[in-house]
Amino acid sequence: MSPTASILFSGVAGWLSGARAADNASGPADAIARQNMLQLIHLRWIAVLGQVVTILAVHFSLGFRLPLAAMMLVLAALVALNLFSLARLKRPTPLGRYDLFLALASDALALTIQLYLSGGATNPFTTLYLLHVILGAVLLEAWATWAIVALTSFCFVMLVAFNRPIVATGLSDQTFFDLFLMGMLVGIVLDAVLLVTFVARINANLRRHDARLAELRQRAAEETHIVRMGLLASGAAHELGTPLATLDVILGDWRRMPIFASQPDLAQELEDMRGEVQRCKAIVTGVLQSAGEARGGEVRASTLRAFMDEVAADWRATRNGEALVYETDLIAPTPIVAESTLKQVIHNVLDNALDASSGAVRLWAGVREDRLLIEVEDDGPGFTDETLENFGKPYNSTKGRAGGGLGLFLVVNVLRKLGGVAFAENLAEGGTRVVLDLPLSSLEISRAD
């Protein structure tokens, strides 16, 4: 079977099952919600630390008498809430639409209790309410944002009517007013610093979310394209079966004609033609078989060195064997699944290198830090800058023929499904190098279960 056709059909079922799994998994919206919840947890730790320092400093250094036990109890409740939130993030259950709202509302209520215990509306740190409102506007839906606005406004009004007055000893009115202004300045600066820091982080989360969505859309488009190609190739294979069988019969009849028996050169050419027809029939048969299978062919246990030796030997047997220079430093008998899809991927890259090369093609395989690296080099003209920039995209080819560039497109996508990557580079001395990089774990024996 041709490498491109084999890769194509062996990947279709995997792409479809992967798409279904992605639909069932937690979506990007849950991921961004978890990141935002983590930002609120970090902010709450900062709030707890800042309040501990502020409360102790005000009580012991500035002469104000605060209810330390009650205020520390509120801080203990915030610590417990943070621990609960961290445990909630470890569970696979997606965050609901109310989780972020309840987190912000809980923080606003905790701040209200602290302000009630330390002067109510006269406490200069009432400006911290703005932090909750702005974070609500960034993180929450419209209804939840307005609910936070209503909650903080209600809390402030209640603080005007109900509060525990601050008791200060040995402070003049002017000193008290100066401390009040300083507290307001600290509160405003704190609001500004925290907002800039955490809103910037939240916006970065949103940008990563948007980039992830764009990547998923691109991948979905590529997978749809691959499935469509598979259907077209399957139809073409069905259509080619009959004329190839007819050619095989005709060549068999010619073989028995006296003219070929008397001319060895013609007889040899006829045998070469029959061999190529048989090869085409084998390719068509393989395409049709792969179209109905979940995997691209036989899956069996082997070792990494034996698998790579087999890849090189099979390619030499059907192409110009002298054109391949095979090197490897694989020594350890690493047990793997002999994934025939990966074999066809390597054959595809070798075919492209042979097409571009004027001499030998080099194949090298080795393991570096639990990753399998496979390099294919040629001495051809190299890739253009545009081709390198769009490496792995369909119809991106330097060969200039219609439909070219699908082989590497399939190679990149198959490697991606195995958890690896493929990339290319031009060599300084001329020619190109294509590198296939995938984790050894993707070829573990457990994959055959």
Distance between the termini: 26 Å
Could you tell me the mean pLDDT?
A: 78
Oligomeric state of the chains present here: single chain
The percent range for strand residues is 5-15%
Tell me about the largest β-sheet. 5 strands, mixed
Low-pLDDT segments: 1-26, 293-298
* Rg, nearest Å: 35 Å
**SS-based structural class?**
alpha+beta
Query: Number of DSSP strands?
Result: 9
| Strand order, sheet with most strands | 4-6-7-9-8
Q: How many helices?
A: 13
Helix and strand element order: HHEHHHHEHHHEHEEHEEHHEE
Count of spatially separate domains: 2
Shape estimate: elongated
Helicity level: 55-70%
Topology at a glance:
Elements: H1 3-24, H2 28-60, E1 64-65, H3 68-90, H4 99-116, H5 129-139, H6 142-161, E2 167-168, H7 173-255, H8 258-262, H9 264-291, E3 299-303, H10 304-318, E4 324-328, E5 335-339, H11 340-356, E6 361-368, E7 371-378, H12 385-389, H13 406-417, E8 421-426, E9 432-439
Helix pairs in contact: 1-7, 1-9, 1-11, 1-13, 2-3, 2-4, 2-7, 3-4, 4-5, 4-6, 5-6, 5-7, 7-9, 10-11, 11-13
